[in-house]
Amino acid sequence: MATVTISGVSKSFNGTAALHPLDLTVEDGSFCCMLGSSGSGKSTLLRIIAGLSDPDTGTVRIGERDVTRAPSEKRRIGFVFQNYALFPHLSVGTNVAFGLRARGIGKKEAHTRADRMLELVGLAGFGKRTPKQLSGGQQQRVALARALVTEPDVLLLDEPLSALDRKIRGEMQAELKRIHQETGLTTIMVTHDQEEAMNLGDSVLMLSHGRVQQFDTPETLYREP
Ligand code: ADP
Ligand code: ADP
């Protein structure tokens, strides 16, 4: 079970609240999309869940585990951040295998698992190429494969598609949906795109000035005036 439970989490920077005490439960296996204008606290919340930033108050649980003070690499999460680039000088396969190698897994097994992940994201046979030889959409697929290869419990995505052009973005949305269905991973994604949130999310969280404005199914949000 990898339900993500946020209880009373808050965060201030220089005395200004980026997040007011916030409670949120993202159910095991669900896909939660986070919407909100720039500065509403989306990245701050995602970074706290990822373990890249500590909350001032409150707790973060993944399943039964309290991970509030656990370092990022102990949380069993995968993340794709907008600015979390691939290593340009390493092959695609080595990029994907990187997290496994860092965990002490042997080269052969790491690359076998990396190849399997590249297959999952529709890039079978691309392992020997370098990131530069790939399109933006393909690079994001590699980033996704890299996030998934360590078999995380939770997948965190910070605007993974916003740099892509419209057509590719549509394709990648379908791809994310398929991968979510295949893996059953609890997924939390930040997006600026309301249509994308409605299309992908089983739940949509709207943040405004560091508070939860709405948290509901897309169907319910659509019905509201
Ligand atoms: P969003 O992701 O919704 O655009 P952020 O979480 O990045 O919002 O930011 C929320 C608020 O916290 C903003 O006012 C931002 O300037 C501030 N903030 C975020 N990170 C820092 C930081 N490291 N230092 C100072 N202020 C920060
Ligand atoms: P994005 O816009 O892609 O969501 P941000 O620009 O909010 O990302 O954050 C990028 C980095 O800058 C993060 O480490 C965040 O904590 C930091 N940051 C964001 N806003 C501020 C700020 N006002 N002052 C200092 N650091 C900030």
Concise structural overview:
This protein has 225 residues and is an alpha/beta fold.
List keywords for this structure.
225 residues; alpha/beta; six-stranded mixed β-sheet; four-stranded antiparallel β-sheet; 7 helices; 35% helix; 27% strand; globular; binds adenosine-5'-diphosphate; ABC-type quaternary ammonium compound transporting activity
Structure description:
With 225 residues, the protein is of the alpha/beta class. The strands form two sheets. It has a six-stranded mixed sheet with strand order 6-7-8-3-9-10, sandwiched between helices. Helix 2 (92-102) crosses helix 3 (107-120), helix 2 (92-102) packs parallel to helix 4 and helix 3 (107-120) crosses helix 4 (136-148). It has helices spanning 42-50, 92-102, 107-120, 136-148, 166-183, 194-200, 218-223, and strands spanning 4-13, 16-26, 31-35, 57-62, 65-66, 77-81, 154-158, 186-190, 203-208, 211-216. Residues 13, 18, 36, 38-44 line the site of one adenosine-5'-diphosphate.
Order of helices and strands: EEEHEEEHHHEHEHEEH
Summing up helix and strand content along with how strands pair, one would put the structural category as alpha/beta
Strand content: 25-35%
What small-molecule ligands were found? adenosine-5'-diphosphate
- Poorly predicted runs: none
